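2024-03-11 09:14:02 DEBUG pipeline.ingest accepted 1 chain
2024-03-11 09:14:02 DEBUG pipeline.ingest length=198
2024-03-11 09:14:03 DEBUG pipeline.predict start
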Amino acid sequence: MDRHYIEVPGAGTHELPPLLVRMPPEDASRAELVELATHIVETEDMIGNLDAAVVEDRTLDLAIHLADQYLGLLAHWAWGDSVVEWIRQCEITFEGSGTLRNLLSRNVWPHAARSSFVDLLLDKHVQTQGVALDRAVGMRLTFRQPPPIDCCSNQFLFFLNGRLAGAAYQTWAQMSPDASAHLPPDRFHFEVHKLDQN
Protein backbone atom coordinates (compact mmCIF):
# COMPACT_ATOMS: atom_id res chain seq x y z
CA MET A 1 0.00 0.00 0.00
CA ASP A 2 1.35 3.43 -0.96
CA ARG A 3 1.45 5.70 2.05
CA HIS A 4 2.48 9.30 2.48
CA TYR A 5 4.32 9.79 5.75
CA ILE A 6 4.46 13.00 7.74
CA GLU A 7 7.84 14.64 7.97
CA VAL A 8 8.84 14.61 11.62
CA PRO A 9 11.36 17.35 12.43
CA GLY A 10 14.81 16.18 13.51
CA ALA A 11 16.35 12.77 13.15
CA GLY A 12 15.70 11.09 16.49
CA THR A 13 13.17 8.49 17.53
CA HIS A 14 10.27 9.61 19.71
CA GLU A 15 9.14 7.51 22.64
CA LEU A 16 5.37 7.03 22.85
CA PRO A 17 3.52 5.77 25.94
CA PRO A 18 3.33 1.99 26.26
CA LEU A 19 0.27 0.27 24.85
CA LEU A 20 -1.27 -1.48 27.85
CA VAL A 21 -3.56 -4.20 26.54
CA ARG A 22 -6.08 -5.17 29.17
CA MET A 23 -7.12 -8.72 28.40
CA PRO A 24 -10.83 -9.48 28.86
CA PRO A 25 -11.72 -10.53 32.39
CA GLU A 26 -12.75 -14.12 32.84
CA ASP A 27 -15.89 -13.32 34.84
CA ALA A 28 -17.84 -16.13 33.25
CA SER A 29 -16.31 -19.53 32.76
CA ARG A 30 -16.48 -21.13 29.35
CA ALA A 31 -19.10 -23.57 30.68
CA GLU A 32 -21.28 -20.66 31.84
CA LEU A 33 -20.94 -18.97 28.44
CA VAL A 34 -21.95 -22.19 26.66
CA GLU A 35 -24.98 -22.45 28.98
CA LEU A 36 -26.03 -18.87 28.15
CA ALA A 37 -25.41 -19.52 24.45
CA THR A 38 -27.57 -22.66 24.68
CA HIS A 39 -30.42 -20.43 25.87
CA ILE A 40 -29.89 -18.19 22.79
CA VAL A 41 -29.98 -21.22 20.49
CA GLU A 42 -33.19 -22.49 22.09
CA THR A 43 -35.05 -19.17 22.28
CA GLU A 44 -34.16 -18.13 18.75
CA ASP A 45 -35.30 -21.50 17.41
CA MET A 46 -32.09 -22.10 15.47
CA ILE A 47 -32.75 -25.82 15.09
CA GLY A 48 -35.63 -27.27 13.12
CA ASN A 49 -37.70 -30.34 13.89
CA LEU A 50 -35.15 -33.10 14.28
CA ASP A 51 -34.75 -36.23 16.37
CA ALA A 52 -34.30 -35.36 20.09
CA ALA A 53 -30.75 -36.78 20.26
CA VAL A 54 -29.75 -34.84 17.12
CA VAL A 55 -31.33 -31.67 18.51
CA GLU A 56 -29.32 -31.97 21.73
CA ASP A 57 -26.02 -32.48 19.85
CA ARG A 58 -26.76 -29.73 17.35
CA THR A 59 -27.78 -27.33 20.14
CA LEU A 60 -24.52 -27.97 21.99
CA ASP A 61 -22.46 -27.49 18.79
CA LEU A 62 -24.16 -24.19 18.03
CA ALA A 63 -23.85 -23.02 21.64
CA ILE A 64 -20.13 -23.76 21.67
CA HIS A 65 -19.73 -21.87 18.40
CA LEU A 66 -21.73 -18.90 19.74
CA ALA A 67 -19.61 -18.87 22.91
CA ASP A 68 -16.44 -18.82 20.77
CA GLN A 69 -17.84 -15.94 18.71
CA TYR A 70 -18.61 -14.05 21.91
CA LEU A 71 -15.12 -14.66 23.31
CA GLY A 72 -13.76 -13.24 20.04
CA LEU A 73 -15.98 -10.18 20.50
CA LEU A 74 -14.59 -9.73 24.03
CA ALA A 75 -11.00 -10.02 22.79
CA HIS A 76 -11.63 -7.45 20.06
CA TRP A 77 -13.37 -5.08 22.47
CA ALA A 78 -10.52 -5.36 25.01
CA TRP A 79 -7.89 -4.61 22.35
CA GLY A 80 -10.00 -1.75 20.98
CA ASP A 81 -10.49 -0.22 24.41
CA SER A 82 -6.75 -0.44 25.05
CA VAL A 83 -5.90 1.13 21.68
CA VAL A 84 -8.39 3.99 22.13
CA GLU A 85 -6.86 4.76 25.55
CA TRP A 86 -3.34 4.52 24.04
CA ILE A 87 -4.31 7.01 21.32
CA ARG A 88 -5.46 9.44 24.04
CA GLN A 89 -2.13 9.02 25.82
CA CYS A 90 -0.25 9.58 22.54
CA GLU A 91 -2.24 12.75 21.88
CA ILE A 92 -1.19 14.06 25.31
CA THR A 93 2.43 13.15 24.49
CA PHE A 94 2.23 14.94 21.13
CA GLU A 95 0.64 18.01 22.73
CA GLY A 96 3.44 18.17 25.31
CA SER A 97 6.22 18.04 22.72
CA GLY A 98 7.17 21.12 20.72
CA THR A 99 8.48 18.87 17.94
CA LEU A 100 5.31 16.75 17.66
CA ARG A 101 2.55 19.23 18.61
CA ASN A 102 1.77 20.47 15.10
CA LEU A 103 1.67 16.99 13.54
CA LEU A 104 -1.90 16.55 14.81
CA SER A 105 -3.02 20.10 14.09
CA ARG A 106 -5.63 20.70 11.41
CA ASN A 107 -3.84 23.98 10.69
CA VAL A 108 -0.93 22.03 9.20
CA TRP A 109 -1.36 19.94 6.07
CA PRO A 110 -0.90 17.06 5.79
CA HIS A 111 -1.60 16.20 9.41
CA ALA A 112 -2.01 12.89 11.16
CA ALA A 113 -5.51 11.76 12.08
CA ARG A 114 -6.32 9.66 15.13
CA SER A 115 -6.54 6.62 12.83
CA SER A 116 -2.86 7.23 11.97
CA PHE A 117 -2.05 5.72 15.36
CA VAL A 118 -3.87 2.50 14.40
CA ASP A 119 -1.90 2.51 11.13
CA LEU A 120 1.29 2.96 13.17
CA LEU A 121 0.44 -0.18 15.16
CA LEU A 122 -0.09 -2.06 11.88
CA ASP A 123 3.15 -0.70 10.40
CA LYS A 124 5.00 -1.81 13.55
CA HIS A 125 3.51 -5.31 13.19
CA VAL A 126 2.15 -5.40 16.75
CA GLN A 127 1.25 -9.00 17.62
CA THR A 128 -2.45 -9.24 18.43
CA GLN A 129 -3.07 -13.02 18.52
CA GLY A 130 -5.56 -12.88 15.66
CA VAL A 131 -7.37 -9.68 16.66
CA ALA A 132 -7.90 -7.33 13.72
CA LEU A 133 -7.03 -3.86 15.02
CA ASP A 134 -9.50 -1.99 12.81
CA ARG A 135 -12.33 -4.27 13.97
CA ALA A 136 -11.11 -3.98 17.56
CA VAL A 137 -11.24 -0.19 17.52
CA GLY A 138 -14.58 -0.33 15.70
CA MET A 139 -15.96 -2.65 18.38
CA ARG A 140 -14.86 -0.22 21.10
CA LEU A 141 -16.36 2.72 19.18
CA THR A 142 -19.64 0.79 18.95
CA PHE A 143 -19.81 -0.34 22.59
CA ARG A 144 -18.65 1.70 25.59
CA GLN A 145 -18.76 -1.55 27.58
CA PRO A 146 -18.69 -5.07 26.18
CA PRO A 147 -22.27 -6.30 25.87
CA PRO A 148 -23.20 -9.39 27.89
CA ILE A 149 -23.72 -12.49 25.77
CA ASP A 150 -27.44 -12.62 26.54
CA CYS A 151 -27.85 -9.17 24.91
CA CYS A 152 -26.46 -10.53 21.62
CA SER A 153 -28.61 -12.29 19.07
CA ASN A 154 -27.27 -15.28 17.18
CA GLN A 155 -27.36 -13.14 14.02
CA PHE A 156 -25.16 -10.52 15.65
CA LEU A 157 -22.63 -13.04 16.92
CA PHE A 158 -22.50 -15.06 13.71
CA PHE A 159 -22.70 -12.38 11.06
CA LEU A 160 -23.00 -8.79 12.15
CA ASN A 161 -20.32 -8.01 14.72
CA GLY A 162 -17.49 -7.99 12.15
CA ARG A 163 -19.42 -5.85 9.68
CA LEU A 164 -20.64 -3.48 12.36
CA ALA A 165 -17.19 -3.04 13.87
CA GLY A 166 -15.60 -2.59 10.43
CA ALA A 167 -18.15 0.03 9.41
CA ALA A 168 -17.72 1.89 12.71
CA TYR A 169 -13.95 1.99 12.23
CA GLN A 170 -14.17 3.15 8.60
CA THR A 171 -16.60 5.93 9.54
CA TRP A 172 -14.31 7.05 12.35
CA ALA A 173 -11.16 6.87 10.19
CA GLN A 174 -12.81 8.95 7.46
CA MET A 175 -13.75 11.76 9.81
CA SER A 176 -10.54 13.43 8.61
CA PRO A 177 -10.72 12.73 4.87
CA ASP A 178 -8.08 15.35 4.13
CA ALA A 179 -5.56 13.65 6.39
CA SER A 180 -3.67 11.40 4.02
CA ALA A 181 -0.46 11.35 6.02
CA HIS A 182 0.73 8.59 8.30
CA LEU A 183 3.19 8.48 11.16
CA PRO A 184 6.56 7.09 10.00
CA PRO A 185 7.10 3.85 11.97
CA ASP A 186 10.89 4.27 12.12
CA ARG A 187 10.53 7.58 14.02
CA PHE A 188 8.41 6.25 16.89
CA HIS A 189 9.03 3.64 19.56
CA PHE A 190 6.68 2.17 22.14
CA GLU A 191 6.28 -1.04 24.10
CA VAL A 192 3.26 -3.32 24.29
CA HIS A 193 2.33 -4.91 27.62
CA LYS A 194 -0.54 -7.33 28.20
CA LEU A 195 -2.32 -6.99 31.51
CA ASP A 196 -4.57 -9.69 32.97
CA GLN A 197 -7.68 -8.37 34.70
CA ASN A 198 -8.20 -11.41 36.91
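2024-03-11 09:14:41 DEBUG pipeline.report Residues 12 and 118 are 21 Å apart (CA to CA).
2024-03-11 09:14:41 DEBUG pipeline.predict end
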